[in-house]
Amino acid sequence: MLAIGCAILAAVPAAHAQTQARLPGPLTPVRSEPPLVTGVPRIQPRFVGPVDSWEVVNVEIDERGVPRRVSVVQRLLVHGVGDYYFGIPAPATSVRAADGTRSEPGRRPGQILWQGFSPGNRVLAASVGLDPAAAARHLPLLVIVSRKPGLVLLTIRNATFTRVPSFTAAADPRQVARFLDLLRDPPARLVPDTFVTVSGQIRQRSRVAVAPLQVSGALEFPAGALAGARASGGTVTGSRVTFAGLVMKAPLRVEVRLSGTPRPRLRLVADPELPAARLRPPTGRTWMQYVGDGRGIEPRELLDTALGVALDAAVASHYDTLLANPDRTGKRTGRYVYTSATPEVRTPGAERQRNGGRSWLASVAIAVGLLAGGAAGIVWWAHS
């Protein structure tokens, strides 16, 4: 992690001296992962023009929120005429070409390989299965669907919290306002680190940054299960309870009170996205107008606002690419889709196969235990 908050170029020799401090741009790295890394030596990438990345990360979870399957469809657009060659670190269990690709992906342990020639624009698309245990630590949400008689509770928690070094100071309001206005522009994620003039005492501090996540989705229930049901945090429509909201520090909860304990199926979409309201000035159309109004602007508070927005944007930028874009400054968009994993259906034949054909021994043991009156049951463990 870079000590972005402590990037002060010079010490402050006197109370009224001025120096330069750095405001982190959205592409400033504040976490080690994501994008995912592996222990495989990095390939020096080669490409002519910029490379843009679009990703959809599919996560299948059980009711406890444990990812059972994680896969990514990554689409890269290579611009420019010339050869390209790069590797993308990934704890991949499978790699295959996805729809629309103009080349075939390669694979070696810990990496996805791309190599070829771009005639001007070349689409590279791969569907990648990931080791769920390795990927789970770097997913943005913890999603749990719990059930008990008369209640289904969906809890969505943000898992992107990152503690970073930062600082407080009195900065030039116009310079800070200009930086905030840059973040409001459509290509905001390409805003570079910006230096601002600060005066007086500079205090170092740590700050918790978090990626804002816009979520929406539905719990799908069996037909008729929601008759007379009431939902808090969501809307009942037919056999579905829909929900939407911004998940940051506080979790989003959806409570469904109904008869029985039906098992719903979940589909949730999450987009790492800084909400427009965070970038809106208290008055005026722009931050420069707000500062120009001169309505008692407190330089320390304005700088604190800018740092909070910039660091949250930097964390969100990490989650745009669970799989790395070989071009660090290229455009990138990521979306996460969480769905309920299909419950395992265990048949007697499957149990015999899973236990090496020894299920008859288990049956004998159960019978003997019941006859003796000392058996409480047998716990079965099956790997998903």
Describe the structure in brief.
This protein is α+β, with helices and mostly antiparallel strands and 384 residues long.
Please give a structural write-up.
This protein is α+β, with helices and mostly antiparallel strands and 384 residues long. The chain folds into two domains: 40-161 and 209-340, no CATH class; 349-376, no CATH class. Helix content is 17%, strand content 41%. The strands form three sheets. Strands 2, 3, 4, 5, 6, 11, 13, 14, 16 and 17 form a ten-stranded mixed sheet that branches. Strands 7-8-15-12 form a four-stranded antiparallel sheet, with no helix packed on it. Helix 2 (173-184) runs parallel beside helix 4 (299-318). The longest helix is centred in the last third of the chain and has 20 residues, at 299-318. The model is unreliable at 1-15 and 350-384 (pLDDT under 50).
List keywords for this structure.
384 residues, alpha+beta, 2 domains, ten-stranded mixed β-sheet, 17 strands, 17% helix, disordered N terminus, disordered C terminus
DSSP helix count? 6
Quick one: biggest sheet?
10 strands, mixed
**Cα-atom radius of gyration:** 26 Å
- The percentage of residues in β strands lies in 35-45%
Helical content class: 10-25%
Overall mean pLDDT stands at 85
Low-confidence stretches: 1-15, 350-384
Q: N- to C-terminal separation?
A: 35 Å
Number of domains: 2
- How does the overall form come out from the CA principal axes? globular
Question: What is the H-and-E element order?
Answer: EEEEEEHEEEHEEEEEEEHHEHH
Strand runs, count? 17
Main structural class: alpha+beta
